[in-house]
Amino acid sequence: MGTQPSTINRRSFITGMLAAGAALSTGALVGCGGEPRNAQDSASNPSAPTSKDWTSPPSPVENGEITETVEADIVIIGAGTSGIPAALTAVEGGAKTVLLEKGDTYFAAPNWFAGIGSRYQNELGLTFDRSEIVNDLMWYASHRADQRLINLWYDNSGEAIDWYGDELEESGSLEFAVETDSKNTGGKHASPPVAHVPVEKPYKEMQPNKMGTRLTHPVLLDKAVALGLDLRYKTPAVQLVKEDDRVAGVIAKNEADEYVRFLASKGVVLASGGYSGNRYLMEKLNPNQSQNLTNNPQDNGGDGFKMGVWAGGDYGRCAWVMSSDRSTEGGGWTPGSQPWLRVNKFGERFCNEDAPYDFGANAGAMNPGNDWWNIFDSKYWDAMTKYHTTICSRMVPAPGAVCTTLVPTDADSFFEMYIAPQLESGNMVQADTLDELATKMQEKSPDITVESLAKTLERYNELCDKGVDDDFGKIGFRMVGVTEPPYYAMHMITGETGLAALDGLRVNTNLEVVDAQGNAIRGLYAVGNDQGGFYGMSYPWYYGGLHAGKNLTFARLAVKHALRS
User: Fold this and answer.
1) Are residues 301 and 206 in the same domain?
2) pTM for the model
3) In the chain, which stretches have pLDDT less than 50?
4) Do 291 and 424 belong together in one domain?
5) Same domain (yes/no): 146, 23
6) Among 497, 546, 538, 191, which Cα is nearest to 324's?
7) Does 250 lie in the same domain as 365?
């Protein structure tokens, strides 16, 4: 790409520091995303604000400090689940494209991509009801979402999945497997087969598979670079350039710590991962969850989000991040989303345990102490087979289910993978009698008594024998008694994953950032966690891969619109 002398229109309004996404996370939650990593606080976070008012833009970079100007059509900030497909879409469309990433590699976590009407689903004869799904997603959001964006995903996600699938097939080593296994919710929630899972060939049904964006990102990036993508790692964007009413580019720092200006004649795409890794912004915008952020694999500093606000962009007033009922002291426990018996610090049952994962976390957060216990017995494998949960909470292989390398295959492997480490950590206790179990639970919950736990277990087992949950309404076949020793109790806490931000910059259906009056800021697009308006204060967990599928779909649509502008 060409260079020009370091000149700049001093009328330009330069807005904001930007962190360009996060580095690759190692490890994976079962089927869902990245390994838990504690969020950074504002003291150690390089994106911590320099003033009390985070909405105030910093001083502009002086013209004399800029050592190089690079001309491009499109500049994308952040090499992740949104930024990488956006970059490949742009270069396939003939655009001169720059992809800036502050880390030394890309960020990869998601395994599932949700889409509607893909050729893979059509080949399987799967059909969907647009009104039912769109309205169900609005119900999850308590209608605190822009239904036009949900419509946009529904109508365009099939094309995005097919495009992604073409890229996988072209690699010769990857393909899509389709989740057809759905959860029996008793009709209380939709659980449609929308998930597409990139897997290594040959796909093995009911067996462990290598899968996810750790495999696909290199394939897409290699092709994009071969087509001319200018990919720059260790190059954090630091300021947007806004000329008159249009965003015209971005200033970044290269590895030599020099300022480089990237002009974008078609647009700048923010795909930097949101602000859930910035403790200061979480406390300011999302105080309800900020203290419970236990799993944030992206360490996202919120600078892309701030940059959009500093450019005049509006943002939602319903800040929230993805939460689930599988957080523990010091990490997470994926089987925590199983509908085991749950008791509070007094040993009392407090909810219908068979609910979407964030609902389970919300119920736990209502407890004094924000914690609870999962209780089960030696029949845990038989119980999980009856539970037949899906996607991120799946613990038992099933026909139509895409299994990760972390799904156990029998009771012994489950014990070794999920019980033994927690017994060693002290988060779980094991006992041969219920009295002994209560006594061991008292170390973390001193208000539990032998009598209170015995009363709860007697009532719960009575309802399980009856097959009807008269107390909390859990579906009958998921009522499995706690009757055969050894007995187990797993201590859980209220925690927020931060993997998906459920709010961000407001956008229109072109994915352009809009101001408080709803007017588009030309040349500026937001996708991924930088973009809001799609969710309310709940993540639709039964829609496997919805966040990654939405991010993929909107990344392509944003670039396509920019190329037409």
Assistant:
1) no
2) 0.89
3) 1-31, 33-51, 297-298
4) no
5) no
6) 497
7) no
Together in a domain, 122 and 149: yes
The answer to whether the bond into 486 is cis (omega within 30° of 0) is yes
Residue 6 · residue 63 · CB < 8 Å: yes
Cis peptide before 192 (omega within 30 of 0): no
SS3 readout for 268-327: EEECCCCCCCCHHHHHHHCHHHHCCECCCCCCCCCHHHHHHHHCCCCECCCCCEEEEEEE
Please say which residue of 213, 229, 248 terminates a domain.
213
| Gap between the Cα atoms of 287 and 55, Å rounded | 17
Which pLDDT score is estimated for 264? 98
For the stretch 503-534, pLDDT in tens is 899 999 999 999 999 999 999 999 999 999 99
Q: Are 340 and 384 in contact (CB under 8 A)?
A: no
Domain boundary among 184, 213, 242: 213
Q: Could you tell me if 200 and 172 are in contact, meaning their C-beta atoms sit under 8 angstroms apart?
A: no
Burial of 127 from C-beta contacts in 10 A (0-12 / 13-18 / 19+):
exposed
**Do residues 395 and 414 make contact, with C-beta atoms less than 8 angstroms apart?**
yes
The C-alpha torsion from 275 through 276 and 277 to 279, rounded to 10°, is 90
Quick one: the chain helix, strand, coil %, rounded to 5? 30, 20, 45
- What domain range includes position 169? 113-213
| Strand pairing class (520-526; 66-77) | unpaired
Instruction: Check whether residue 412 and residue 485 sit in a common domain.
Output: yes
Give me the phi and psi of 66, to 5 degrees please: -85, 120
pLDDT at 10: 28
Judge if 98 and 179 occupy the same domain: no
**Domain count across the chain:** 3
What CATH code is carried by the domain that includes residue 461?
3.90.700.10
